[in-house]
Predict the structure.
Amino acid sequence: MSSDSHPADSDAPVSVKPIEPRHAMYLVIFAAVVGVIGWQVFISLKWPEQLGLLKDQSELNRMATDSMRRELNENDRKQGEAISGMTKSLSGFSDRLRSFESELANAKGQFDLLDQTATDRLTEHALSKARAIEARSLADRVSTEINRLNQQLQQWNVRVAALQTNDAGQKLALSTDRLELLDDLLTHDRLTADDISDLSSQLRELRVPIDAALSRPDTTILIPESNVLALEALLTAAGNARQQLTDDAGRLESLVRQSTEPLPKGAPALKDALAEHRRKQFDALNENVRERLAAARAAADDEISTAAEEAERARQAAEVARIRLVAEAQREADGIRGRIEAQRIRDAADDDLRAATEREQSARALAARQQRMNEYQKALPEIRRLLAPFISAGRRQLNGTQWQFSDQAGPLSYAGIRATGALQNAESGYEQFLWLAGGPNNDRANGAFPSYIGGNVEMNFTALVPAIRRSQILIEEYGDLLVEQGLLAP
C-alpha cells in the first residue's frame, strides 16, 4: 500500500477520542449565546422592513376590499337592473300568458260550439233516418191494408153479382122484409174500386220523400209531419172501409142463411125483384112528398088568407078608432085638462095603431115563414140526397172546429159546420166541406161525395164543385130550419 492512500479507504478501524462532559457544557452555552445574539441582530435588521411590508399589505387589503366593494356594488346595480328587466319581461310574459289563456278559452268555446253543432247535426241526421224508417213502415202498413181492402171489395162484388141471378138470390127475394134489408145493404155507401185506386195514388205520392230520404244515407232529408198525418189518415180510411166491408159481408151472408123457403117455379131473379122494389119505393116516396106539399100549401094559403084578413080588419078598426079619438081629443083641447086628455087619447090611439101594425107585421112574417117552409119542403129531397154526410146519425161530432166522440148518435152541429169555414164560396171552403163530408173523421155515410183525405178540390175534383156549392147554399138558406126539424144539431 502507498503512503498517500486515504484513511477511509483503509480497512483498518478509526479510533474516536470521546468528549469530556465539561467541554460539552461549554459548547451548549456557547451555542445558546450565539443564537440569542443572532436573533437580536436579525430583529434589528429585518423588523422595519417587515413592518413596512405589513403596512403595505394592509393598504393592499384595504384597496382590494374597496375594489371588491365597488365591484359588488356595481354587480348589485347590474343585478338590480337585470332583475328589473327580468321583472318587466316576466310582466310582459304574464300579459302574453293571460292573452294566450283568453285566446285558448275562446278557442275552446268555439271548439265546444263546433262539437255541439256537429253532435246536433249527427243527432238530427239519425232522427231523420229513424223518422224515415218509421214512415216507410207506416207506408208499408197502408199498402198492405189497401191491398186487403181491394181483395175484399173484389170478393164482395163477385158475391153480389152471383146473387143477382142464382137460386140463393131468388130465395132471398121471396121475403119483402129481407129484400128491403138487402136493398139498404147494397145501397150503403162504401169505397169503390176508383176510390181504392185514388188511395193507392196518394200513397205513391207520399212515398216519394220517404224513398228519397232512405236512398241517400249521407243526406239529411226530413219527412214532413203532414206526410205522416196523411199516411195515418190513409191507414184509418182503408181500415174503416175494410171493416165496413167485413160487416156488410157478414150481414149479407146472414140474410142468405135466413132464406130457407122452397123456391117456387117462376120466381123472379134477385136483380129483377130489386128493380121492382126500388120502383115501388120511389113511387111511394114521390106520392108522399106530393101529398105533404099539397097539404102544406093548402094550410099555408088558409093561414095567409086568414092572417091577411084579420090584419086588414084590425088596421081599419085601429084607423077608425084613431080618427075618433083624435077628434074627441081636439074637442077637449081647449083647456089644460082637455089638452091632457086629448094627449092621452092620442097616445091611446097611437098605441092601438101600433098594436094593429104589429099584428099586421106578425101576419106578414107568418106568411113569409110559411112561404119559406113551402120552399124548404120542395128542397127537402135534394137536401136528403146532398147533405147525407151531415144530417145522418153518427157518433162523431164537431165541438167548435174539433172532432169528438159522442155517446149519443145524431146529426152534425150546424154551428160546428159554420165554424170550420166549410160554407165559404172559395177553394178553402170547398176543401173544408169535402173534408167534413168525406173525411176519415166523419163516421156517417158519404152520400153524394167520395172519400177525401186532402188535395185541391177545384183541380182534382172539378166535377164535384157544383154539388159542393149547391150543398153550401142549402145549409146557408135552411140551416135554422134543419136545426128546428132535428136534421142538424144546434
